[in-house]
Amino acid sequence: MTARGRGRPPADGKIVSPESILSEALAILEGADGLDGLTMRALATRVGINPMTIYHHFKDRDGLIKALAEKVYAGVSAPEVGDVLARARSLLAAYYAKVVLYPALTLAIFARPAIFPDHAKRITDELTSLLSARDSSSEHSLRWTHILVDYTHGAALAVAVQNRSIGHQSSNEAMLSDFESGVAALLEAFWHSLNHRSA
């Protein structure tokens, strides 16, 4: 007798990978119905599987959303070499690009602090570490991390809302340039705050 794999098989015998389920879930989440449209039943219908298969892989909707966030944010990191503030700018620009692409995912995470993804924490810790390389006060670096992350969220979500209202993507290059100018100004203010504290 051959052992059957874990989980309930699809009704039609089709094998569907967790990666395929996540891709379809992200499409639903970022669609017209947003988070309200992302139900296990709607996702199962879209993928063509039994809803229990999704529960097997992701436990519940919160687990599914967390897995989506881990997938989306996995590649967001600072360059390994270079000036620390330039690396911080690159890290924030990479995160900004993901929030612009997947605003509903960001808002879903805001609504559920308990599912804060590991990669989001890693990005925050990485930024704090970069700022701490120039700052002897961890509390000061953490405060500026929150300022920079909040600015990134606000700028990216504003672009995403504008894109949705006009029905297509606006000039994201111009928006990215504006965002990067804002980050540069904030990092300059951070640098001046260090000089002021050490004076």
TrEMBL record:
<dbReference type="InterPro" id="IPR001647">
    <property type="entry name" value="HTH_TetR"/>
</dbReference>
<keyword id="KW-0805">Transcription regulation</keyword>
<feature type="domain" description="HTH tetR-type">
    <location>
        <begin position="16"/>
        <end position="76"/>
    </location>
</feature>
<keyword id="KW-0238">DNA-binding</keyword>
<dbReference type="InterPro" id="IPR050109">
    <property type="entry name" value="HTH-type_TetR-like_transc_reg"/>
</dbReference>
<dbReference type="Pfam" id="PF00440">
    <property type="entry name" value="TetR_N"/>
</dbReference>
<dbReference type="InterPro" id="IPR009057">
    <property type="entry name" value="Homeodomain-like_sf"/>
</dbReference>
<feature type="DNA-binding region" description="H-T-H motif">
    <location>
        <begin position="39"/>
        <end position="58"/>
    </location>
</feature>
<protein>
    <submittedName>
        <fullName>AcrR family transcriptional regulator</fullName>
    </submittedName>
</protein>
<keyword id="KW-0804">Transcription</keyword>
<dbReference type="GO" id="GO:0000976">
    <property type="term" value="F:transcription cis-regulatory region binding"/>
</dbReference>
<dbReference type="GO" id="GO:0003700">
    <property type="term" value="F:DNA-binding transcription factor activity"/>
</dbReference>
